[in-house]
Design a protein that fits this description.
Hepatocyte Growth Factor; 5-stranded antiparallel beta sheet; 230 residues; alpha+beta; binds 2-acetamido-2-deoxy-beta-D-glucopyranose; disordered N terminus; transmembrane helix; transmembrane; membrane; 9 strands
Length: 230
């Protein structure tokens, strides 16, 4: 060690700026001279080159990584959106199924109340969920669109007629009479009678037996559509 120092000190003649430095931590002697400085500069340059390479790599690689990640994110978002659309469609389908007015159950519930002379508001009837609201003594007003004219007569017979025939009144009156009778599916009426004629007779029917149904010159039948056609 000391020899080295001597050697270095001897070299001082060649290099006036050379110094011997003791690193207090490692307790080792180091030569510090101009050559060293040059080496330092060379090291600095090497370091600079390495740093530059690293920086360039980072500049190139980071955007690639970020882009990849964004792509992945994009895919995830897309996937999420698609499953979102799927759930949305299922919810819509579900809502459609749930929100359809069950005309049969609502009508039965209203018929019962009317038969008992009980006032009602259909918002209180679970049977009338999603049906348009009606209060005593009415049925939901949009059910007026459920009536269809059929060009046939259902002949009068015990098996096809409801109780109380004939009902005398305009079409609206007969429709209401039919809705109130739990067995009624429609009524036959004279073709010549005006809808607003209060003196025309309606024959309420409880079923359509094919052997009792005929096309007729004078009579037609108005049928209440209980089910939605999908
Ligand atoms: C409507 O309600 C009746 C009972 O009131 C039930 O038998 C029928 O299945 C229901 N219809 C639908 C489509 O839910
Ligand atoms: C409902 O009221 C009518 C008269 O408005 C009456 O003739 C009928 O008996 C009543 N029905 C019941 C179940 O109370
Ligand atoms: C409907 O139910 C509410 C309470 O839920 C009640 O206050 C109201 O009187 C009911 N309406 C009819 C017409 O029964
Ligand atoms: C019945 O309706 C016809 C048109 O369809 C009209 O000319 C007539 O005045 C109406 N009669 C009554 C009593 O409202």
């Amino acid at each position: 060690m000391f020899d080295n120092r001597t050697h270095v000190e001897n070299n001082q003649s060649d290099n006036k700026n050379a110094r011997l430095i003791l690193n207090p931590q490692s307790k080792l002697w180091y030569v510090y001279d101009k050559n060293c400085k040059t080496q330092h500069i060379q090291r600095k340059i090497s370091l600079l080159i390495i740093v530059t390479i690293v920086v360039v790599l980072v500049i190139i690689i980071i955007p690639i990584i970020v882009t990849n990640r964004q792509n992945k994110k994009g895919q995830q978002t897309l996937t999420t959106t698609f499953s979102g659309i799927e759930s949305a469609s299922s919810i819509i389908t579900l809502t459609e199924t749930i929100s359809r007015c069950n005309v049969t159950s609502c009508r039965e519930r209203i018929q019962k109340s009317i038969a008992q002379n009980w006032t009602y508001d259909t918002v209180n009837f679970t049977e009338c969920n999603s049906c348009s609201r009606a209060t005593y003594p009415n049925f939901p007003s949009d059910w007026s669109t459920r009536w269809y004219d059929m060009n046939f007569l259902i002949y009068t017979s015990e098996s096809s007629d409801c109780a109380g025939n004939p009902y005398i009144g305009n079409v609206e009156f007969c429709q209401y009479a039919c809705l109130k009778d739990i067995t009624c599916i429609g009524f036959s009426r004279a073709k010549a009678a005006l809808d607003n004629s209060s003196s025309a007779g309606c024959y309420l029917k409880k079923n359509i037996n094919l052997d009792k149904v005929y096309n007729h010159d004078i009579w037609y039948t108005i049928i209440f559509r209980r089910y939605d056609i999908d």
